[in-house]
Structures are given as C-alpha cells and as structure tokens.
Amino acid sequence: MPPVELFAQILQAGFDETLSYLTLHVITCLVPAFFIAGGISAVLSDHFVTKYLSGDAPKLQAYSIASVSGVALAVCSCTILPMFAGLYKKGAGIGPATAFLFSGPAINVLAVVFTARVLGLPLGGARAFFAVSMAAFIGLVMAFVFGDAADQQSSQPVATDGGQVPTQRPTWVTAGFFGSQVAILLIAATGLLSWAVKAPLLAPFFALLGYLLWAKFERGEIETWLQETWFFTRSIFPLLLAGTFVIGIIGAIAAIAQGMNPLETIQAGEQTFVAHKVAPGLLTQGIFGETTVLSAGLGSVIGAILYMPTLLEVPIVGSLFGYTQGLMADGPALALLLAGPSLSLPNMLVIWKTIGAKRTALYISLVAVAATGAGLLWGVL
Fold first, then answer.
1. Could you report the per-residue pLDDT of 354-381, keeping only the tens digit for each?
2. Cα separation, 192 vs 196, whole angstroms
3. Distance in angstroms (rounded) separating the CA atoms of residues 211 and 207
4. Is residue 203 in a domain?
5. Residue 140, number of CB atoms within 10 A of its CB
6. Measured on CA atoms in the order 274, 367, 112, 38, is the torsion positive or negative?
7. What is the pTM of this model?
8. Residues of the domain holding 320
C-alpha cells in the first residue's frame, strides 16, 4: 500500500475515533457532567465538602462516601473528570477526591449489572468488591504520600451583581438541583432505552431543575454556575479530543502491523468491531489464556491506556479477548475490567492538569498495581 494511503488511513482512524466519541458521549454524557461539575464548584456548600470529603473529615466517613459514590453514576473515565475537578477545586482532600475519581467509572450500577449478566455473576461480584476496596486503598495511599490537606485555592465565586453568591439554602433545594442533573445524566447516557422512551422520562427532571433555578436561585448564582461550567468545558474538553484522536492513531498503527486495513470490520463472537478499535487487543490474545503476573499486568496496562466508554469494556473482555469462549482467564479479565473504565490516555492528560505530574504518576501506578493484584488474587481464587 502506498505510504500516502497508509498515512491517510491512520489519520482517518484518528478522526473516526474522535467523531465516534463526539457522537456517542458529548451530548448524553459530557454536557450533563460539565453542568454537574459547575454546580459542585459554584453551588455546593463549602461546609459540605469540608465536613464530608476534606482531609480533616473523619477518614471512615470520607472514604466510605467517596468509594461508593460511583454506584449512581453511569460515567466513563472521561465523564467523571469534570466532577472530580470540581470537587478538588472546591477543597476536597486528595485522598477522597482520587477515591471518587476511581470509583465513579469502576462501580456504576449499570456496568456491574451488565458485567454480571454477560460475563457471569462471580466476575460481576468480584468487580464490585474489588472496585470499592481499590478506591479506598488508592485514596488512602495518595493521602499518606502527599498529605490530605487541600493545597489548591477553593473556588469562591462572586455574583455579577456585586454581592457574594449565597451558599446557604434548604437541603432539599440543593438535593433537587444535583439529583435532577444526575438523573438526566443517567437517563441520557444509557444505551438501553430509545429516545422515544428517554424523552418522557427526562421531562420531569428538566422541569424540576427549571423550577428550582427560577424560584430558588438568584440570577448571580445561575451566572456563576454557567461560568464555572464553561471553565471546566474549555479546560477539559480539548484534552479529551486530543487524547481520543491519539487513541485512534495507535489503534490504526497496531492494525497495520497485523496486516489489516485500520478501517475494515472484524467479527469477534457476536460483536462487530472496526479494526483500529480492537487491533491492540488482538496483539495480546495469546497471553491471556491463564492468570499470571504478565497477563494480569498486561490487562491492567491495556485497560489503563485504551479509552473505553461505559459498558464497552464488557463486550471487549467477553468477545474480543474471548472470555465468554474460555480464551481469557479470570485474572486478566478482572484486571482489565477494573483499570479499563477508570483510566485512559485522555483521562490521564486531564488528571495531570488538575493535580500535577507527581500525583498523577502515583495515581496511575496505584490503579495499575492494584488492578494487577486484584486480578492475580481473583485468578487464584
């Protein structure tokens, strides 16, 4: 194949990956997530963060909340980032914040239920147990190494009318504000429902949010919320696009190395994949037949690098790597399921910008090591 055509296919794979990301996740996942992040920064009371998630909060309380908070969020490694950045900017300790960062994509109820249904109840249960345990472990180690006192400036937005944005409001108003947005995120993000079903389900939550904004929030508060939302959007979204484009490039190169056209389709079990999306996994199929340090470690590394939208990790493990056909052992399967939803190349770029290089390096290492260890333990059991 002429070099020019190869280069064109590699670029096309990058653009395809980016377009797929934009089509599948921007409106239904990222937009609601950015608004939630803006709300965390502008609306959530400093007292709440200080009391429940700061470095001074009781550890059992802080890490229990952070480690299970992802149950209600159907988010991927990129969608969780605005919420994580909002909490960290608001003053959450590095330990609880990173526990939340890991738990959000790792233990959302849709992913756990889908894993149990497709890959079996034992693996689904193992995923839930180890995800919660890993979230607490990662957060505690991060706090031990770097200290859990917030070292960043807490956001203190000021209303555009010249007065300080009030932070005291009835609990039910704050709960309704965030609860309606989380419900919108959950309903919009699920692929199990058509829009004909989603629309009537979304309507009452949009109505509730609109009522609260109209009746219970000052104009300055709403403007501050929108400003914070735009801040997270312009800070994070370009990095997500760049990282996703690079993932497509890597996949295309891996496909060409195996003699495939990056844009051709490949049948794996009952699933159909574009070659550049699965080529990195195909290179490693022969290693995953048994649980070893190499197979579990490689599973965690592949999961950490590749971008996997919520729930996609299940068919990748089941069909692409052949778990449902007995071609992939339990250990590397669990390691990939744990590391895959919680890390990706785009995700790493944004974490680095949010908490710095040293903290990011340790966080990534902890996820990879803990996922490897969990995979080895589960494989032995």
1. 889 999 999 999 999 999 999 999 998 8
2. 12
3. 6
4. no
5. 17
6. negative
7. 0.66
8. 3-166+218-380
Contacts with 347 (C-beta within 8 Å, 6 or more apart), sequence order: 77, 78, 81, 243, 307
Q: What is the CA radius of gyration of the chain?
A: 21
Going by pLDDT thresholds of 50, 70 and 90, the confidence category of residue 163 is: very low
The DSSP secondary structure of 228-288, one letter per residue, reads HHHHHHHHHHHHHHHHHHHHHHHHHHHHHHTT--TTSEEEETTEEEEHHHHHHHHTTGGGT
The answer to whether residue 206 is domain-embedded is no
**Taking the alpha carbons of 229, 349, 143, 372 in that order, is the dihedral positive or negative?**
positive
Who wins on pLDDT, 191 or 64? Answer: 64
Give the C-alpha distances (Å, rounded to integers) separating 29 from 60, 75, 186, 337.
31, 7, 8, 20
Q: Residue with structure tokens 């472990």?
A: 137
Instruction: Check if the beta carbon of residue 207 is closer than 8 Å to that of residue 181.
Output: no
Summarize pLDDT for 314-366 with one digit per residue, the tens: 877 876 677 876 778 999 999 999 998 888 888 898 899 888 999 999 999 99
181 in a structural domain: no
Task: Spell out a b/e string for 127-139, using b for 16 or more CB atoms within 10 Å of the CB, else e.
Answer: bbebbbebbbbbb
- Split into its structural domains, the chain has a count of 1
B/e letters for 63-100, b = 16+ CB within 10 Å, e = fewer, are: bbbbbbbbbbbbbbbbbbbbbbbbbbbbbbbbbbbbbb
369 domain-assigned: yes
Question: Is the CB of residue 37 less than 8 Å from the CB of residue 234?
Answer: no
In sequence order, which residues have a C-beta less than 8 Å from that of residue 287 and are 6 or more positions away?
Answer: 294, 295, 298, 332
Buried b (16+ CB within 10 A) or exposed e, 195-206: eeebeeebeebe
Measured in degrees and rounded to the nearest 5, phi and psi for residue 342 equal -95, -20
230/208 Cα distance (integer angstroms): 22
